[in-house]
């Protein structure tokens, strides 16, 4: 894994190249979710093998980019992603994003279509069911309740944090490589034992979350895009973040450049963290790079 540091507003953003080491391999920008990190993409990078390389960022306010100051929100993240593309020398790239990352990718594709060749959106990018009519702050507080609770927890050591993730309703019994889960957890922890905690603060989650509620940029995309959706939600519940009917309606509005891809037997987390979900995401990325 190659670390890349990118000069952005307020400091340096951390990114990591993973996957193919071929000099001529297609390079794909990969953007993680609201309380995640670059390590979201470990399984996908493995599934890609030698077919493509990912440059996976740590968004500002998280993991190795945690020291970057405000502003947060989609516009700030898009500016950071343009800086990453500039530093990599990518005039136009395939961009993939999971959850919040899909909304960032969609805004990047909408505001800067000249920088994006194709988009692979993973369980995100469209309206979240129930959010349109609700008060934004109340909706996001309820929607992210389990996630926000983790931000205030402490852990005695890495093993305790890994055990917490292993027991998470979305991950318990899932096809996640133990080494991936441990790396995912380790990259997120900061502080000193026995009061280790996540690197992510509640302010960044709140500001990013509120920015997701509204008219989605994916509705206005002119670049080709595929949206992979999970049949289950954030705690392995039967309420998906991006229902298949919603995604199919979105694709039907522009069938020449949009496609809906249901991924069976995954939830909002395991669509990227699990082996079967990662294979589906990798297949969509390979198709996008070929296109």
By DSSP (H or I, 4+ residues per run), the number of helices equals 11
**Per CATH, which architecture?**
3-Layer(aba) Sandwich
Rounded to the nearest angstrom, the distance between the terminal CA atoms is: 26 Å
Helices and strands, in N-to-C order?
Answer: EEEHEHEHEHHHHEEHEHEHH
Class by alpha and beta content: alpha/beta
Which strand-content bin applies to the residues? Answer: 15-25%
Please name the fourth-level CATH homologous superfamily: Alpha/Beta hydrolase fold, catalytic domain
**What is the CATH C level class, in words?**
Alpha Beta
Describe the largest sheet.
8 strands, mixed
Shape: globular
Assign a percent range to the helix content: 25-40%
- Could you say how many structural domains there are in total? 1
Segments where pLDDT lies below 50 for 5+ residues? none
Number of strands: 10
Mean pLDDT: 96
CATH topology: Rossmann fold
Overview of this protein structure:
- This protein has 291 residues and is an alpha/beta fold.
- The protein has a single domain, classed as Rossmann fold (3-Layer(aba) Sandwich).
- Helix content is 37%, strand content 18%.
- The strands form 2 sheets. It has an 8-stranded mixed sheet, with helices on both faces. Strands 7-8 form a two-stranded antiparallel ribbon.
- It starts with a strand and ends with a helix.
């Amino acid at each position: 894994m190659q670390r890349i540091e990118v000069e952005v507003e307020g400091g340096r953003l951390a990114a990591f190249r993973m996957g193919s080491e071929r000099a001529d391999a297609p390079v794909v920008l990969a953007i993680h979710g609201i309380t995640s990190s670059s390590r979201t993409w470990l399984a996908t990078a493995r599934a890609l093998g030698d077919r493509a390389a990912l440059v996976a960022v740590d968004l500002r306010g998280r993991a190795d980019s945690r020291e970057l100051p405000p502003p947060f929100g989609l516009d700030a993240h898009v500016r950071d992603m343009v800086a990453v593309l500039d530093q990599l020398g990518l005039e136009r790239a395939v961009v993939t994003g999971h959850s919040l990352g899909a909304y960032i990718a969609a805004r990047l594709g909408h505001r800067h279509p000249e920088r994006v060749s194709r988009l692979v959106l993973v369980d995100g990018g469209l309206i979240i069911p129930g959010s349109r009519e609700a008060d934004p702050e109340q909706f996001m507080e309820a929607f992210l309740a389990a996630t926000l609770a983790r931000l205030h927890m402490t852990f005695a050591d890495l093993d305790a944090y890994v055990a917490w993730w292993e027991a998470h309703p979305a991950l318990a019994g899932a096809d996640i490589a133990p080494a991936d889960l441990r790396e995912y957890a380790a990259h997120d922890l900061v502080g000193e034992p026995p009061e280790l905690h996540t690197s992510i603060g509640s302010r960044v989650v709140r500001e990013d979350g509120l920015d997701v509620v509204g008219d989605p940029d994916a509705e206005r995309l002119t670049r080709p895009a595929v949206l992979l959706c999970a049949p289950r939600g954030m705690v392995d519940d039967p309420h998906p973040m991006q229902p298949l009917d919603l995604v199919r309606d979105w694709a039907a509005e522009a069938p020449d450049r949009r496609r809906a891809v249901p991924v069976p037997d995954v939830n909002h987390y395991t669509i990227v963290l699990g082996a079967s979900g990662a294979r589906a995401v990798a297949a969509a990325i390979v198709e996008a790079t070929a296109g």
